[in-house]
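Q: Make up one entry.
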Amino acid sequence: MDNIQREDIESIARQTSLSEETLTRALNERVYPDANSWKKFLTLLFLVLGIGFSLAGIIFFFAYNWADLHKFAKIGIVELLVIALTALTFLSKINTQSQQIILTGSAVLVGVLFAVFGQIYQTGANAYDFFLGWTVFVTLWVCFSNFAPMWLLYMILLNTTLILYCQQVTGWPSLLMYGILYLGNGAVFVLAKMRQAPAYFIHTVGLAALTFATIGMINGIVSFEKEYFSVFAPLVILTYLAALWHGVQTKSTFYLSAVPFSLIIIISTFLLDISNDEWMLLLIGVFIIISVTLVVRNLIQLAKKQSS
């Protein structure tokens, strides 16, 4: 009953003889935020804003005073901040969510520390080394905190590390790289849904997987990596069919909007690869207008059905 939504209550009210007073009381108890909810929200909001602005101030502080600071002062300041923020998470007076937010700020400072170290000693390392070190040194914090924003930061670091590694070290075909990114983010998406992670995390990771799938399909259409494309394309098509079926079954606007828009981009690229003369460009323009209109129309109809 904790996850009951406003639509659920209104649907029950339409199908039963609930009075207006009972409906209002149920909405006030289960849906509408009270004074304590607003207080909790504002506390977390100001905490997030405070940590965010503090991190931005630290970065700009180093950028402005870089030439005037001794190298040990540069590293020491960041290390002390990392230690101080991490130590705050052990205070019993701070609630768990605030501790997780503070630890996320500390994880961002780890990246600042690596950046400062690299600038001082000019290690000459590839860009992927920076993100790899950052990813490795926050892994324990991510696993133990089990905090969705921290996991989101971790996914960004993992994706960035893999992209830079493939581009700077391995020289793998780009379609192979996008395939790995697509499958990796897709696996995290499925796991997050199974563990009932927050919706924003699920949708962000799903959108990342969809983005890599779309870029991979475009790359496969315009490039000559046919041996990889023959495997990548059927996998993406099967995934899209499953996502559309799931979206229809659950009436999820996320699946029924993201997947069709991705398909519109892929089909437009395919048509453009066939020919780029004025008639084909006109055909692509008409196709985009009609398909986008149909997608938006279906989404509006779905929203009306859910609200009725």
User: Anything to note?
Assistant: The two ends are 22 Å apart (CA to CA). The mean pLDDT is 80.
